[in-house]
Amino acid sequence: MNKQITSFFQRIAPLLLAWLLVVPLYAQQELPALPPAQLNRPAGWQLVGAVSTTADGASLKTQPGSTILTGAGEPLTLLTPTDDFRLRFDMLLSANTDFVLTMPTGQAMSFTGTQEMARLTKAPGLWQTVDVWYKTGKGHALLEKLALNGVTVRESQTLNNAKSGPLTIMAKTGSVAIRNIGYRVMSPRLVAQWSSPVSYTIVEGGYVTSRIVAQSKKVLKQDTASLLTYEVSYGQPRQHSILFSGKLTALQAGDYQFELNQGGVGGVWIDGKEIIPTDHRELGQSSFGTANLTAGPHTVEVYFSRSWFRPGLGLFVSQAGTRSQPLHSLSSLPEPDPVAVVSVQPTTKAELIRSFVQMPGEKTKRTHSLSVGSPEGLHYTVDLNQMALLQTWKGDFANVTEMWYERGEPQLLSPMGVTVRPPAQSPLVVLTNETTAWPDSLGENVLQYKGLTVDKQGMPTVEYTLAGTTVTDAIRPDGNALVRTLTLKGSPDGTPYCRVAAGTTIDEVGKGLYAVNDRSYFVRFDPKAKVKLRQSNGKQELLLPIDMKSGAGTVQYSIVF
Predict the structure, then answer these.
(1) Is the pTM higher than 0.85?
(2) Which of 31, 66, 94, 231 could form a disulfide with 175 if both were Cys (CB 3.0 to 4.6 A apart)?
(3) Residue 561 class from Cβ within 10 Å (0-12 exposed, 13-18 middle, 19+ buried)?
(4) pLDDT tens for each residue of 425-456
(5) Are 511 and 522 in contact (CB under 8 A)?
(6) Alpha helix locations (H) across 189-261?
(7) Are 420 and 520 in contact (CB under 8 A)?
């Protein structure tokens, strides 16, 4: 590994290319759009501009346009691959639709033919997402991953068949609509290479979170290596930090994505600019950064500091349409310790778990959260500080690995199924009038949690006080819905309102039935209820006033998904 770098790459390139074929795809957030109008449409398929279902979900209703494809009966070819690819699309099904995805190797996968798939499929009339990662091969191919609504249902599945044909979709019964088709070839080509040996400096002291501080420490060793490698630390004191620097040649101008994987503290700089901030990670917890590079050499600096985690260091580089390429020696990044998922599954009764919950886009954890798992396969989390229904999901219940494995950091519970996130604020507020903005949070002087009771099935009913009233809050599974019943007693200073939905879009599907956030989920309530649909703070909101003339009032609504 100490010979000239050019000679090294000539010898290692064939092995490197072979290894790249088994490196996981990096998580590209966006895929180039595949316009539906470009696809050949068989009989029974048509281009439309908008789609919805009838109130019972039995059939599709369409509006003119060219952004969505709808059809039934005949298979629709989405692509005929000649290389590895990633595909993503949204689909919407009518009731009782048997949707089938057929791989290029001929395997047909029914989304309603197996219990595993069927229980992750959303209710008719809702948009849902399909992701496919696929690797071609001679005589066989590999379905690297098939995900439905963000949940992996197939992984590393060998598809044995000598034929290679198109990838198709079909509604054998019922009707399907598809939109937002994204497609990208995933090439194993090299995008960059070290153009000089990588220099390194090992200094005294571990778990140093600042590269600047590490540069002032006592130097233990300085030398060069052919590739980035943690192995240069062998024979050094356990507590140490390493500063790497080398010239990396970008083979063409463009955007590059870098992925750092380390057991300890690490960060990355390109031409003096920090692209991956210094952070503390375990092996397998990658961090990413991007840089726009000109063709030619660039200075890459990597910082690593040993901590109590199992050590290791790896740096990958890729461009859009390529697989991640390692810039480190293979032995520098050991496989992370295998940790089986620690999960909780309800059997005959509900399971209740108190935990922290981290919501997307929020910087702080929800520290007083109660997650409830039902044997029926519908689950939810409520924030007991605000009585906010944070998330609901279907499928498996709770991943508690980060709560119960080893030291139990960071104490987070994660859903294991298809997740819907309603507005994360209190569902009840006393408003001055119908134009008053809904508050982001309520203080303890307004809302106070008082405890809960559990029924024979293990399902909780929570009690709290709110602005002069006592509230009982019960959430129960019912078919493909969670039904929430809020009962108020007392004399509030004003009219209490229940906000049953809030989102970017709220569309009336039928009397008492509304689709929320571009048909992500439905809310249903009494068709006779005097609901108010309003615009507030850039969102649409559905409000139900609660009549408290007799000193008591009740509101009930369902979340259908």
Answers:
(1) no
(2) 94
(3) buried
(4) 999 999 988 899 999 999 999 999 999 999 99
(5) no
(6) 211-215
(7) yes
